[in-house]
Amino acid sequence: MRKRPIATNNPHIQALARIVGETAILYRKEDLMAYDCDGFTVHRHLPRAVVFPNSTEQVAAVVKYCHEHDLPFLARGAGTGLSGGAIPLNGEVVISLTRMKRLLHVDLENRRAVVEPGFVNLKLTNSVAHRGYYYAPDPSSQYCCTIGGNVAENAGGAHCLKYGVTTNHILGLEVVLPNGEVIEIGGNGVPDPPGYDLLGLLTGSEGTLGIVTKITVRLLKNPEAKQTVLAYFDEVEDASQTVSDIISAGIVPAALEMMDQTAIEAVEAAAFPVGHPKDIAALLLIEVDGISAGIDEQINDILTICRRHHVREVKVAQSEEERARWWANRKTGFGAMGAISPDYLVQDGVIPRSRLPEVLREIADISRKYGLRIANIFHAGDGNLHPLVLFDASKPGETERALAAGSECLKACAAVGGSITGEHGVGIEKKEEMRFIFTDEEILAQTAIRDVFNPKNLLNAGKLFPTPGRCVETKTPSTVK
Ligand SMILES: Cc1cc2nc3c(=O)[nH]c(=O)nc-3n(C[C@H](O)[C@H](O)[C@H](O)COP(=O)(O)OP(=O)(O)OC[C@H]3O[C@@H](n4cnc5c(N)ncnc54)[C@H](O)[C@@H]3O)c2cc1C
């Protein structure tokens, strides 16, 4: 954070500094450069300023100021978003929630906790684990992403197959609306509250409807037992069929993850190698949990299904330490791409599980067509693919080819009745691809809802919906001053 005194006559900077304090604002170009993108690094734009409020009142005052002076603004958590949601496309005032990182309340009797938006996901589980509880949504970025960012993106994770994504674990929100008013939604435990489901609407709205300043989440009791299986296959087709058969046998694993050969090459070259054979075509990481009775039976059924599909080797973790090593290897999978490629783009399509083999074949064709390697590391159990397109941005034309290849992967997902995002959001990355799955009328219905909350479209404009002129989107921030 800035240590030097404010040295600008810019009245907006001075006014914002009066709200958050002189040490809680950045406005010099060299400081702003750290905020010109998020995890989607293809587009970069400098913000006007970055402010670090430490209370709902300060967030509301900043928003009110922006609203009254027609300044575009947006919220930012940890900046790990992969679809460009926190990129200040219009020179926004970035409202960083990282100082609002308190765990406000833990109520184990009612299995809930209240956190500020900048609270880091994994810290919540770490804070209640000694009492036998945990917070279920576990994005692979959970060691650093914020729960506010998770709410905005409706984040998923490896264990969301059985337990559901973020929206299934949010009980209440405090939200600063784009005009600076503060509202509270839910939070009182009523199972079917009257009126519209605003919690559902706000969760996954990608920071376009309001800024979340307090979150009530559901906590779960640790499962009594847990077992983890690692299975190596010589054919992707066999691994895919195993996924389908496990689910159709009525088993609901806590997690069912898949990596292909290129992904395995990367994770074995990165920080947490575990010795996977490099010549296999795919591996599955399968976890079951629940009450102890019946777990062994489920594991036996899974081993039988793996063998039916010609598994080369299959093993059950023999200790918590071994299980943790397998998961560390999987969860650092995206970052591991850096070990085999200078740049990569993460895609996030969803398909019906039964179409896995054909879509993976199509992705291999796209890889050949564009002359770029594509690794696959994904939540196979819920059909949430993550093709990682590897490229070198320093080579002319490769970034454009990578973007086109990524878009084509999403088209393939949409063509089999799937979707263009399972958990990373649309942001700026996939806004044109929204047309693969929605008609103009359907997009118009959604922008009409946004306009009710965000009528001046000053909050996070230019995200989520197709570009003006190319479809139905009409409003852009009224001015960029
Ligand atoms: C290595 C890696 C692995 C990942 N794995 C997963 C995964 O398994 N599952 C998954 O779902 N995602 C994953 N992600 C993506 C990312 O971590 C998630 O989208 C996460 O929810 C973003 O949180 P953040 O705090 O970084 O938000 P940011 O990136 O800062 O912001 C994301 C969006 O949320 C909005 N926003 C942030 N805070 C607020 C708030 N308080 N109120 C309103 N809007 C807000 C921003 O405006 C922006 O549009 C991964 C990312 C990386 C880099």
Automatic annotation (TrEMBL):
Gene3D superfamilies tied to this protein: 3.30.465.10, 3.30.70.2190, 3.30.70.2740, Uridine Diphospho-n-acetylenolpyruvylglucosamine Reductase, domain 2 (3.30.43.10), Vanillyl-alcohol Oxidase, Chain A, domain 4 (1.10.45.10)
Recorded superkingdom: Bacteria
GO MF terms held by the record: FAD binding; oxidoreductase activity
CC cofactor: FAD
Annotated keywords: FAD, Flavoprotein, Oxidoreductase
SUPFAM superfamilies for the chain: FAD-binding/transporter-associated domain-like (SSF56176), FAD-linked oxidases, C-terminal domain (SSF55103)
Pfam family, any one: FAD-oxidase_C
Keyword rRNA processing: no
InterPro entries xrefs: FAD-bd_oxidored_4_C (IPR004113), FAD-bd_PCMH (IPR016166), FAD-bd_PCMH-like_sf (IPR036318), FAD-bd_PCMH_sub1 (IPR016167), FAD-bd_PCMH_sub2 (IPR016169), FAD-linked_Oxase-like_C (IPR016164), FAD-linked_OxidoTrans_Type4 (IPR051914), Oxid_FAD_bind_N (IPR006094)
Limits of the FAD-binding PCMH-type domain: 43-222
This protein's name: FAD-binding protein
Lineage: Bacteria, Bacillati, Bacillota, Bacilli, Bacillales
